[in-house]
Known about the structure:
By secondary structure, this protein is mainly α. 44% of the residues lie in helices and 8% in strands. The chain has 14 helices and 6 strands. Helix 3 (45-52) crosses helix 4, helix 5 crosses helix 7 and helix 9 packs across helix 10 (165-180). The longest helix is centred in the C-terminal third of the chain and has 30 residues, at 312-341.
Amino acid sequence: MKIRKIRYDYIRSKVDEFIVEFGLNKLPVDPFDIIKKKKWTLRTYDFYAQMHKVSVRDVIEAYGSEDGFTIFTNGLYSIAYNNRTRSVGRIRFTLMHEIGHIYLKHLEEFKQTTLKRGGLSTEEYEILEKEAHIFASEVLSPYQVLIPLRWINYKLIQKYCGLSTKAAQIRAAQIRDLLVNNVYVDEHSVIYRYFYNFIHCKHCTYCGFSFVSKEAKYCPICGQKLQWGEGTMKYNDGYELDEKGKVLKCPICGNEEVGESEYEEYCIICGTYLINKCTSMNCERIVPGNARYCPYCGSQTTFFRDELLLPWEVAQKRILEEQQRIKEETNEEVAATIDEDELPF
Length: 345
């Protein structure tokens, strides 16, 4: 097989295939875990140095790589990496680079046991190395995830993608250039769909509430500004709504005959307003059943205005008290069961 240029479309298709196979949906991606799941052999340079009774420098010279290599024999793969490398990010990239060689079938199609300059032309070798490099970059730090997150700070990329400082700086510069040139992601792409919840996860630094939303800017529980990422608290209070934002039964009197027409907005028994939406006349969006504030403009919701929902501080306290009560009752029931089992008759 001859190769004369980088096969970008082929690489993208293999990255998509890789993400689907392993169900990847958040960062960082762990290459050690991938290797373990595929049951490929993983060795260190120290292992080969001890086995052949040579130095690590000799291993590097013999296999032609400072960082790692892959051996393909009898249909089986064995990956090796330089464990003397101080940067964990560099090791992670090296391993994903080698996984790229495997997934792009470089060793199979070019009938190589290892990829070396001696077994390939200089042009072929450099193209295959670049293809594996692109594969590793798109799996560990996919631009279709980083662009919507607008991560141009290399420290964010280094932290969440697990890259080395140098690799993170390069990726940050690439993302910055893509944003400047108004490059947008395909929201129907495999990567975007699989990472949707990761990309649009929001949390409140004040009350700890977290949820997934593409457009929300304000916490629906306490009204504070949202930030990207997962929070610490899940609120289970609120009301179950239909697709129009109307409660399935009246929160005050329990009336379940709330009507199917969108024009029936009030309970026919007690007159309670049954739809939770933003109170701002410029917004008036339908919001979740536990929303006290509009996630889009920060205004109060109808349920909070009408005191159908308690302030989040009060609700949080009651939720925690109820959880503690259930825990204590469960412990008492377990203790009682143990006592009965220990009776002599």
